Every structure is written in C-alpha cells, then in structure tokens.
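[09:14] KT: can someone run the structure on this one? pasting the chain below
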Amino acid sequence: MSMGGGGPGQQQLQQLSQELQALDEEIEAVDGDIEDVRQEQRDIDDAIEALGTLDTGSTVQVPLGGGAYVRAELEDIDEVVVSLGGGYAAEQEEDDAVDTLERKRDALDDRIEELREEKSELEAESDELEQQAQQMQQQMQQQQMQQMQQMSGEGDEGE
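[09:31] RB: done, structure tokens below
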C-alpha cells in the first residue's frame, strides 16, 4: 500500500470537508425557508390587522406590482376574497376571513417547527462529521510523528 498523493487519510478528510460544506449550505437554505415562512406570517398579521381597522368606504393603496400603487375606495369590507391555497380563493365574510387567515398562520407555525427539526438533524450530522474530521487529523498527526521518530531513531527499539 503506497501512501502517495497525501495518503488515503487526506482524501477522506477532503471528502468530509466537502460533505460538511454541503451540509452548511443545506442549513443556510433551511434558515432561508424559515425566514420566508415568518415573512408570510407577518403578511397574514398585516392582513388581519387591516381587516380589523378598515371600513367600507375607506381609501386604500392597492399594489399593482413593481412597487406601483393606486388609491382605491373600498366598496364592501364585509366580503373578503381569501386565498385558500392551490390557486383557489373564496369570498368570505370578514370574521370568517380572519378565522381562515389565523388558521393559515397557525399552519405556518407547524411548518416552521418541521423546518427547525430538519435544521437540528442537519446540525447534528454536521457536528458528527466535524468530530470524525478532527479524529482523522489527530490520527494523521500521530502517524507523522511516529514516522518522524522512526526515521530519526532507527534501531532504538531493543529486542
């Protein structure tokens, strides 16, 4: 067995550090997902608050996209069109609309919980790999030390 190319230990370490990097990227992606869900919850809170404060005849700014808005007068606050997901929406009375929005917000809490668990698992896996990498580095250092000692003190071992 030749120890060419830095030896098998070096290759394993390289592979470990690539796996660790991939895990770090996954963890960052999960963090991004959590932030997206939180933003969705904040948007729902804003909608619930708006429903509580607006009246028929209120003037509101309606987003057209691209940062452009128009002013509009609310024709009827008693009927609210609420997205139900999957491309479906329903017209609901104000109280029902608030209930629907609160249910959506609570469901998003569950989603955040799932994402947190996923993140914990990834972090545990990452910690485990880091420990493996440290052990391998220590072993490689010990081997190098032994090789150095053998080279400097050949014949030191009495029979």
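[09:33] KT: thanks! Residues 61 and 144 are 71 Å apart (CA to CA).
[09:34] RB: yep, looked fine to me
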